[in-house]
Amino acid sequence: MTEGPNCVTVQSFRDQVGLHFAFFNLKPQSSASPISAMPASSPDICTPQSPKIDTSLLTIAQSFYDDELWAASCLRARSFNDFRPDTFGLQDHLKYLAEREFEALKERVSGKRVSFRKVSCINASLPESYISNISNELCSACKYVLRGEDRIVVATLDLNQCLGLPDEIVGMKPEVVGSDITRAYLSNVCVAKELQRNGLAYALLEKAKIVARDWGITDLYVHVAVNNEAAKKLYIKSGFVYESDEPTWQARFLDRPRRLLLWTDLSQQPSLTP
């Protein structure tokens, strides 16, 4: 996928909360800053070379251990930033960005970040033996071990139980006291560029809904760049609808494309099995 919904912009590595985007990572435009990525094209659109994957080998689950979180952080660093291959010190810089996200992600998942009641990193992974035929670089960057098997994180997102995300439009539902308990946001949605258009982002969203329901979430939100048609189509397909949009002045102040806030009512959707 591409996070044109795939990829969003910016602020992520720049502020202390780490990445905050809910977009996808396909073909981001060149960035004005060495540590920020511009919005990308779309989540479920990819190059014709993208291979079809064997979904029977796919695992989608919450991640708790450092090696899994590190693999997810590495995927985010390579997905949300677009550098020329001949950029001097490219690998060192990507490692630096991954380390920044890794530390922020560990804090969020461990419950040490103020204003976040609960955060879950949800990853999709495939066996290294399968991915090695597709991308050696992806294997070396995003590997972890699960029950003795080397696996590669190929897609990731965060589920955040909170009133709102830093520098983002805040949802209005539910309109009751204690809404920080029943409101959640998706962020940092990305899929390895080598495997886009395999339905990985949609599968991640469905898994996130299952986890959210287990937490008692009734109202789930996601932010998407206004010009990210592919991402909007993905979220609409998953049951999200428009609630509000970011003021133009705020987008200009934060130096990024204007965002839309999309919402889905989990209390009205049929139960899903894990």
From TrEMBL:
Pfam short name (any one): Acetyltransf_1
InterPro entries (alphabetical): Acyl_CoA_acyltransferase, GNAT_dom
GO CC annotation, single: chloroplast
Protein name (record): N-acyltransferase superfamily protein
Domain N-acetyltransferase: 81-259
Organism of origin: Senna tora
Keywords from the named record: Acyltransferase, Transferase
Organism classification: Eukaryota, Viridiplantae, Streptophyta, Embryophyta, Tracheophyta
A single GO molecular function term of this UniProt record: acyltransferase activity, transferring groups other than amino-acyl groups
Keyword Repeat: no
